[in-house]
């Protein structure tokens, strides 16, 4: 069960209970059925709120998560705990990946509950269609590392086939590729050729100001992995959304 900042703020208990139940069902059924390997997804938003940057895989349990999504965060952290317990007691090869902010075709473009980039794409589509200003929640200053879903898919297959550690691994673009929400919004408006007014609603929460993640562990394994240029990835996602608007998740 996933969602953006504002859905997390409303439903922390649901995020906690539903994800704990899903985690336990999937992992225990995998153990009982003799599944050879399970790769679960965590998120950089589950790391401690008060921490040093960049964050890395050793820091997941070093302090409380941000108060906006504590339910989701603790539920997802427990997957790492369970993976180690299944390995120590039963020898199971269960592991986790930690992607940064994922986006791409077939995303959830819901205006209320979606993540930041698909939400921006849908908002810009509506603003351009209606000739209205584009309103962005928050100041636009928080920094994020975005990963294109097709790049993540390639890395997930590598983890499934080649990565043998129980310890999690961060799947992220390099630190230098971190962008602000404002910069991400500019890529979206450019892809749409949106010429209208852009307004930042600073009465809305920004959430965490940064979540900079180190991909040094990934780079040790795959030093030459090429990530898709973000502007190109945003343009491909915008084009897909416009072509599939009627049937997209929103």
From TrEMBL:
InterPro entries cross-referenced by the UniProt entry: Epimerase_deHydtase, GDP_fucose/colitose_synth, NAD(P)-bd_dom_sf
CDD domains: GDP_FS_SDR_e
Alphabetically ordered keywords of this record: Isomerase, NADP, Oxidoreductase
Domain NAD-dependent epimerase/dehydratase positions: 3-167
Metabolic or biological pathway, per its Swiss-Prot or TrEMBL entry: Nucleotide-sugar biosynthesis; GDP-L-fucose biosynthesis via de novo pathway; GDP-L-fucose from GDP-alpha-D-mannose: step 2/2
E.C. no: 1.1.1.271
Listed Gene3D superfamilies: NAD(P)-binding Rossmann-like Domain (3.40.50.720), UDP-galactose 4-epimerase, domain 1 (3.90.25.10)
Function text: Catalyzes the two-step NADP-dependent conversion of GDP-4-dehydro-6-deoxy-D-mannose to GDP-fucose, involving an epimerase and a reductase reaction.
PANTHER family referenced in this protein's UniProt entry, alphabetically: GDP-L-FUCOSE SYNTHASE
Annotated family: Belongs to the NAD(P)-dependent epimerase/dehydratase family. Fucose synthase subfamily.
Name by which UniProt lists this protein: GDP-L-fucose synthase
